[in-house]
Write a structure and sequence with these properties.
Number of helices: 19
Structural class: alpha/beta
Low-confidence stretches: none
Strand content: 5-15%
Strand order of the largest sheet: 4-5-13-10-11-12
Largest sheet: 6 strands, mixed
Bound molecules: ligand F0G
Shape: globular
Distance between the termini: 62 Å
Length: 451
């Protein structure tokens, strides 16, 4: 490994170790907290030694036109900022990243925020933001000679891991909570050939079992406690900055589950600033589902000093997590960037998801918490109409088609959950209708629905 270039620094006590000294569970031997990848050399590169920002920006853009696989990856085209491999030839890539940033025309109008965008990480090869992290960490596993990789998952991590492991010719073990993940995601793990175990527990229970397993067998852990995952997941920050011509938006809004992605994006912006590539870091807000909101509670009750796990319940299964591993990182991020952490109800999530669908984009339920959260922040006047806001949509709409169909059939929410929002929910519903197989029947339907 390129241990001379990077180190792992404990987020809790600041202890530094080299990459090959990490324990199988990626916890600090001294204080039990998680690590971050750190590049001590960057500190010393001040003055004339500093990388030339103009040259880097040109190089990264130019690589998009290259025919080399690594350059096509939206992660590895920024490889100067993630020197985690000895040999970049070991990188396993599915040409992840380079995802679109869409203007949300209707939501922008409705909220009176003209500059409202969605960074759609669901447009990655396996349909979620996990691909950007997986290409990084699985490449490290390959370079270190592991044959097996494993994760506990609410579905997207397992889909991504299984795909990248298959590409690398490695074996993968998936632990998922039985009956609590969306079918699209389960089908991906099967399709890509993972050993898929459904455990009679929740996500947090799967994490406990896997943490034990990786200490007993030579299996490389690919949950987001693995700090190399975050090196890949920080790269959408680079893409966002590049899109805005190396200015940064005022505000980034991210869903919160196990709470690693928000801090990965924060790390990306922080590093850009430290290297003189952008002038500031955006405000970053984290939104949770009301039934799975341990960070919201932690910030409210102890300003993020401690976290009480909750029993998680939400139909946004990707973020059905009661004991998030990276909560300290996320708490500090929200505080340092001046962001907010709030929760949204099942009805608010469902409505926001239908609104993102009506923009022609769609996303999975967990991603929709971002728009639901923004609506709340706007109502509280925490966000002004002149700001540039980016919602990070984390998963593709086809990941959880059952949720979408149930919404449009009107069977998703219980009456007490929908109470007070019935009109809005009905206005966004587009149920499929049975029609006779005749042109007249279809045309008369259109007349009936004429707008
Ligand atoms: N959105 C989606 C679609 C997710 O799959 C996840 C997490 C999150 C948001 C939350 O991100 O955990 O970094 O705060 N899914 C994990 C999984 C836990 O196993 O796929 P986070």
């Amino acid at each position: 490994m390129n241990d001379n270039l990077h180190q792992l620094r404990c987020f809790g006590c600041g202890a530094r170790i080299s990459g090959d000294q990490a324990r199988p569970d990626f916890r600090c031997a001294d204080c039990g907290d998680l690590f971050e990848v750190d590049y001590p050399g960057w500190e010393q590169r001040k003055g004339h030694d500093r990388p030339n920002p103009g040259a880097l920006k040109w190089l990264w853009r130019e690589r998009r036109c290259s025919s080399e696989g690594l350059d096509h990856s939206g992660v590895w085209r920024f490889r100067e900022l993630l020197p985690i491999l000895d040999n970049f030839g070991n990188a396993v890539t599915l040409r992840e990243g380079n995802t679109p940033l869409y203007w949300l025309a209707r939501a922008a109008k409705a909220l009176g925020i003209d500059q409202l965008f969605a960074k759609h990480q669901g447009m990655n090869p396996t349909g979620s933001f996990k691909d950007t992290g997986m290409t990084a960490a699985l490449s490290v596993a390959r370079e270190r000679g592991f044959e097996w990789v494993a994760c506990a998952s609410t579905g997207n991590t397992s889909a991504a891991m299984a795909a990248y492991a298959a590409r690398a010719g490695m074996r993968s073990l998936v632990l998922i909570p039985e009956g609590k993940i969306a079918w699209g995601k389960l089908s991906q793990a099967m399709d890509y050939g993972a050993v898929t175990c459904q455990l009679k527990t929740d996500f947090d229970g799967c994490v406990r079992v896997l943490t034990d397993i990786v200490q007993r067998a030579p299996i490389y852990l690919l949950n987001s406690v693995n700090p190399y995952r975050l090196e890949g997941q920080k790269t959408p920050a680079f893409e966002i900055a590049e899109y805005f011509d190396w200015t940064v938006p005022d505000h980034l809004i991210v869903p919160g589950g196990n709470l690693a992605n928000s801090s990965a994006l924060g790390k990306g912006f922080r590093e850009l600033k430290e290297l003189g590539l952008v002038a500031r870091v955006p405000r970053i807000s984290v939104i949770q589902a009301a039934g799975a909101n341990p960070l919201v509670r932690s910030l409210a009750s102890s300003h993020g000093a401690s976290l009480e796990p909750v029993e998680a319940h939400t139909r946004a299964t990707a973020i059905r997590i009661g004991n998030p591993a990276s909560w300290r990182k996320a708490a500090r991020l929200v505080q340092e960037t001046g962001g907010w952490c709030l929760d949204v109800t099942e009805a608010e999530i469902a409505i926001a998801k239908a609104e993102i669908g009506a923009e022609g984009l769609g996303c999975e339920p967990a991603s929709a918490v971002t728009l639901a959260g923004l609506k709340k922040l706007r109502a509280q006047k925490a966000v002004s109409g002149g700001e540039t806001v980016v919602l990070v949509l984390t998963g593709h709409t086809l990941k959880d088609a059952d949720y979408t169909i149930d919404y449009h059939r009107g069977t998703l929410l219980r009456p007490e959950e929908a109470a007070g929002n019935e009109q809005q929910i009905a206005a966004l519903r587009r149920n499929a209708v049975s029609v006779d197989a005749a042109p007249e029947a279809v045309l008369s339907l259109l007349k009936g629905n004429a707008v």
